[in-house]
Write a structure and sequence with these properties.
By secondary structure, this protein is of the alpha/beta class. The longest helix has 21 residues. It is globular and about 100 Å long. InterPro entries: DUF927 (IPR009270).
Length: 565
């Protein structure tokens, strides 16, 4: 009760100061604030004013006495206090504070409160400039020389448990000899590096296998490198798109783990999820009055697991795999002697190893990621040497996978993403965080990158493959009278219905047909296919050839062997 008595005495003193400077009469009586002798509200005091990193979004940090006798802090935005006092004060009411009188009078009292402290607001989780890093358990990690107090605006309820040494001994050591586990842990540490790697955007890594192999355990361990809920249940892909956006915001600069990619996505377009995630910003929204809300942003590594690959799921759901998705979403086929594990570290069999690892991940979590960020803040590496080290790992992965320097398209970008995972794992190891030896993380990422690379069709770029897939699907949908050979063309009874003419060497697409394939972008597609030596120009150099028959005799001619392949 002593702290409540002290709290009430501070309120009495500060109300007297307000009265002395203004023509007001506020007083505290029987644990209630009165205005001119009338009950106004239960006790509160303004502890500090707070601003974000750009000295905007001014808010009041307010301590309130709840009805059950606790003192809690809430952050009340000044813009809401001015424009919508009931809405602003609702934040206080949510925590057990009660108002009896006019809400406008309470708003005025807050604005008059004598405040000596000025704090910073972490408006986002993760990095706020390079000054401080806000965690989901309410902890704020500060850079050297940054002394301001920081309050976190987003709700933070996650927990930590155990010690860093406990994690190293119980979990970190089990990752040695298990490349998928070491890869997942290294990937979970990559989020804090994304703001310092302008050549790498947010991306997802998806582990897939047709049976239960311990994939979920990889996600559970990776998630546990950061503060998380005490409830160990993983998030799943069966949630809504809005839920996914909220998860991404909360996982900013850390890792998001989502399990159980379904065989079909009935609720929404999965392709849209991939695009939104990789685009690093949410949907634009507006308040009821039409005012545009601040768009959510994030930089996140997403780890996923399921029985099918992302590409297989898109195909099963009838969705198009658009260009760029293969950079944002990396499908990793899983193959190991014991599910996803190569070495059991003394366990009798794979199931007992998975069970022990799952139990230990519930005993030791939330320590590794924050320790990594704390050391990064004291390390000049982020400002000098970062890009050079990233380039070095990029070259090592290229050499390990025997990738030609002439290879273009998405693959070099993806190898750079793998290189950033190497950098995170190796740097954390050099800081003494993981307990791994130098080179361990590099070898683990090489193994996983090779699994990914060997599953690719490297004869053509992913973008060209997507174009050819769409053309092939279109051809398969045409009826016999919509697809006609040159030989039969002159005698065709309804040449006006033909979409595609063909010989044993070429397909001739009418403009209408190519527009249907490309959603109205026939010319753009023709130019791209021309650049890939699929489209065959006319002798005049035109993108279109002219047939000697048919009413719509200007066509886009394409190599049949390339498309049929």
């Amino acid at each position: 009760m002593a702290h409540i008595d002290s709290f009430l005495k501070e309120i009495e003193s500060e109300l007297k100061e307000i009265n002395s400077k203004n023509r007001t009469k506020y007083e505290l009586k029987e644990q209630c604030i009165l205005a001119f002798g009338v009950k106004l509200c239960t006790p509160f005091r303004v502890k500090a004013r707070a601003y974000d990193r750009n000295r905007a979004n001014m808010s009041f940090l307010i301590e309130v006495l709840t009805t059950d006798g606790h003192i809690v802090e809430v952050l009340v935005r000044n813009d809401l206090l001015i424009s919508a006092p009931p809405k602003a004060l609702g934040v206080m009411g949510n925590r057990g504070w009660i108002v009896f009188g006019e809400k406008k009078v309470v708003a005025e009292l807050i604005s008059l409160w004598p405040v000596k402290e000025h704090h910073k607001i972490a408006t986002t989780l993760g990095w706020n400039n390079e000054d401080y890093f806000a965690l989901t358990n309410g902890q704020v990690l500060k850079a050297p020389g940054f002394t301001s107090e920081v309050v976190i605006e987003p709700q933070t309820t996650n927990k930590t448990k155990g010690t860093l040494e406990g994690w190293r001994r119980k979990i970190g050591q089990k990752a040695r000899g298990n490349p998928y586990l070491m890869f997942a842990c290294s990937a979970a540490l990559t989020g804090p590096l994304l703001p310092f790697a302008p050549t790498v955007k947010s991306f997802a890594v998806h582990f897939y296998h047709h049976t239960s192999t311990g994939k979920s355990t990889l996600l559970r361990v990776a998630e546990g490198l950061w503060p998380r809920p005490e409830n160990p249940n993983l998030k799943t892909w069966r949630a809504t798109g809005n839920a996914l956006e909220g998860w991404l915001v909360k996982a900013n600069n850390t890792v998001l783990c989502v399990d159980e990619l379904p065989k079909e996505q009935a609720k929404r377009a999965f392709a849209d999820d991939i695009y939104m995630f990789g685009n690093e910003k949410g949907k634009g929204r507006a308040d009821k009055d039409g005012t545009t809300k601040t768009t959510n942003n994030w930089q996140v590594i997403l780890l996923s697991a399921g029985e099918l690959s992302g590409a297989q799921m898109l195909k099963a759901s009838g969705e198009k795999n658009s260009g760029g998705q293969e950079v944002r979403w990396l499908d990793i086929p899983v193959s190991a002697p014991h599910g996803v594990f190569h070495v059991l570290h003394g366990a009798d069999h794979g199931r007992s190893f998975v069970d022990a690892l799952s139990q230990q991940s519930n005993e030791e979590f939330g320590k590794v990621g924050p320790a990594f960020v704390e050391r990064l803040m004291n390390d000049p590496f982020l400002r000098a040497g970062f890009e050079a080290e990233l380039d070095g790992y990029f070259l090592k992965l290229n050499q390990a996978l025997n990738i030609s320097e002439a290879l273009q398209g998405e693959i070099p970008r993806i190898i750079r993403q793998f290189a950033l995972i190497v950098l995170a794992g190796e740097h954390a190891s050099s800081m003494g965080i993981t307990g791994w030896q130098s080179g361990d993380a590099l070898e683990a990422v090489k193994h996983v990158a090779r699994q990914w690379y060997d599953a690719q069709d490297r004869s053509i770029s992913a973008t060209l493959r997507i174009h050819l897939d769409e053309i092939s699907k279109y051809l398969s949908r045409l009826s016999p009278e919509q697809k006609c050979s040159h030989k039969a063309g002159k005698d065709h009874l309804k040449p006006e219905v033909v979409k595609v003419w063909y010989t044993d060497k070429v397909y001739d697409f009418t403009k209408d047909a190519l527009n249907e394939v490309s959603n109205g972008s026939a010319v753009e597609w023709a130019k791209f296919l021309d650049s890939q030596n699929i489209l065959i120009r006319a002798k005049s150099g035109s993108l279109q050839n002219r047939l000697s028959f048919g009413p719509r005799n200007w066509v886009y001619r394409m190599s049949r062997s390339a498309i049929d392949r």
